[in-house]
C-alpha cells in the first residue's frame, strides 16, 4: 500500500467546512464520511478529515486549541502554476475563507496564505525548483 497522509481538523460546522473545502477542489469520499466527520480528498495520497469537535475529541490526548487565536500548525499545498494558486485562492475567498497576509514571492516560489472558518491555516504555493538559488 502506498503511503498516505491524513490531516485531521476539528471544525465547528461540518457542512459549512465541507462546502468550503469542496470550493477549494477537494472531493468528498463518502466511504469515510458520516454525520460527525467528512473525508475530503486532495489527491490519491492526501486527505483532510474534517471532524466535529465532539468526534475529534475522541482521538485527542490534549485539549483542543482555539485555532482562531493560536497557530498550531501550517498546512501547505503545492499547485502546478501561480494561476492555479490564484484561482484556488479566489474560490476560497468567495467561499468565506480569509487571506491574513499578502502573497509572498521568494523568486523560486510564490505563496499565499489562507484561513478556513475555524482558523486552520493553509499555505498555497507554486514552486519552480529550476529558479532555486544556487548555493
Q: Could you give a quick summary of the protein structure above?
A:
The protein is 21% helix and 34% strand. The chain has helices at 14-23, 53-57, 82-94; strands spanning 5-11, 27-29, 37-43, 46-52, 74-79, 104-105, 109-115, 121-127.
Helices and strands, with pairings:
Layout: E1 5-11, H1 14-23, E2 27-29, E3 37-43, E4 46-52, H2 53-57, E5 74-79, H3 82-94, E6 104-105, E7 109-115, E8 121-127
Parallel strand pairs: 1-4, 5-8
Antiparallel strand pairs: 2-3, 3-4, 6-7, 7-8
Features:
2 domains, globular, 2,3-Dihydroxybiphenyl 1,2-Dioxygenase, domain 1, 3 helices, 21% helix, alpha/beta, four-stranded mixed beta sheet, 8 strands, 135 residues, 34% strand
Describe this structure in words.
Helices cover 21% and strands 34% of the residues. The longest helix has 13 residues. A hairpin with a 5-residue loop joins strand 7 and strand 8. It has 135 residues and is an alpha/beta fold. The protein has two domains: 55 residues, 2,3-Dihydroxybiphenyl 1,2-Dioxygenase, domain 1 (Roll); 65 residues, Roll (2,3-Dihydroxybiphenyl 1,2-Dioxygenase, domain 1). The chain has three helices and eight strands. The protein starts with a strand and ends in an 8-residue tail after the last strand. The strands form two sheets. It has a four-stranded mixed beta sheet with strand order 1-4-3-2. A four-stranded mixed beta sheet has the order 5-8-7-6, covered by helices on one side. The radius of gyration is 16 Å and the shape is globular.
CATH class of the largest domain: Alpha Beta
Number of strands: 8
Write out the strand line-up for the largest beta sheet, numbering strands in chain order: 1-4-3-2
Low-confidence stretches: none
Q: Write down the Rg.
A: 16 Å
Number of spatially distinct domains: 2
**CATH domain topology of the largest domain:** 2,3-Dihydroxybiphenyl 1,2-Dioxygenase, domain 1
Q: What is the average per-residue confidence, as pLDDT, rounded to a whole number?
A: 95
- Summarize the biggest pleated sheet: 4 strands, mixed
Output the helix-strand order.
EHEEEHEHEEE
Structural class: alpha/beta
Total of helices: 3
Q: What is the CATH superfamily classification of the largest domain? A: 2,3-Dihydroxybiphenyl 1,2-Dioxygenase, domain 1
Distance between the termini: 37 Å
What CATH architecture label of the largest domain applies? Roll
Task: Identify the quaternary structure here.
Answer: single chain
Globally, the shape reads globular
Percent strand: 25-35%
| Helix-residue proportion | 10-25%
Amino acid at each position: 500500500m502506498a503511503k498516505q497522509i491524513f490531516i485531521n481538523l476539528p471544525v465547528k460546522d461540518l457542512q459549512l467546512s465541507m462546502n468550503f473545502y469542496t470550493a477549494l477542489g477537494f472531493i468528498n469520499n463518502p466511504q469515510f464520511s458520516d454525520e460527525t466527520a467528512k473525508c475530503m480528498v486532495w489527491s490519491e495520497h492526501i486527505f483532510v478529515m474534517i471532524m466535529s469537535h465532539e468526534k475529534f475529541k475522541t482521538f485527542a490526548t490534549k485539549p483542543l486549541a482555539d485555532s482562531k487565536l493560536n497557530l498550531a500548525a501550517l498546512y501547505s499545498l503545492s499547485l502546478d502554476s501561480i494561476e492555479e494558486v490564484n484561482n484556488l485562492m479566489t474560490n476560497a475567498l468567495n467561499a468565506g475563507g480569509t487571506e491574513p497576509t499578502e502573497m509572498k514571492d521568494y523568486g523560486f516560489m510564490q505563496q499565499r496564505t489562507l484561513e478556513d472558518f475555524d482558523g486552520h491555516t493553509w499555505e498555497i504555493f507554486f514552486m519552480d525548483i529550476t529558479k532555486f538559488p544556487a548555493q
